[in-house]
Amino acid sequence: xxxxxxxxxxxxxxxxxxxxxxxxxxxxxxxxxxxxxxxxxxxxxxxxxxxxxxxxxxxxxxxxxxxxxxxxxxxxxxxxxxxxxxxxxxxxxxxxxxxxxxxxxxxxxxxxxxxxxxxxxxxxxxxxxxxxxxxxxxxxxxxxx
Length: 145
Hints:
The chain is mostly helical. Helix content is 61%, strand content 10%.
């Protein structure tokens, strides 16, 4: 079983939580995605949907982009020959702010996971979040061959 196959299994079984997670962390997700490459609002919505099957509305994405632009975290550039499509890029200050926000978000998630682990440990000493085989067994999922 490859890592990609395991990831697909985990994603299929976590779909009920994905919208809540994406919506709670959408500003961090947007910063993270733009830190990798400049993106338009449409590109962000499309990529998030492709990766998670969660469709964010323009009304939830664009206000975040405008806010980050006002705070000098993002700057807008236009593609050559296309003055309609805004491409968002992190400013130098925005890179630092984005990294801080991502770091703090990850710390919060790790703390949340730690809380889950202490409450939802298996009778054995294995932790289900660190052991894919145990996860599959516990949720009665057949491992791909």
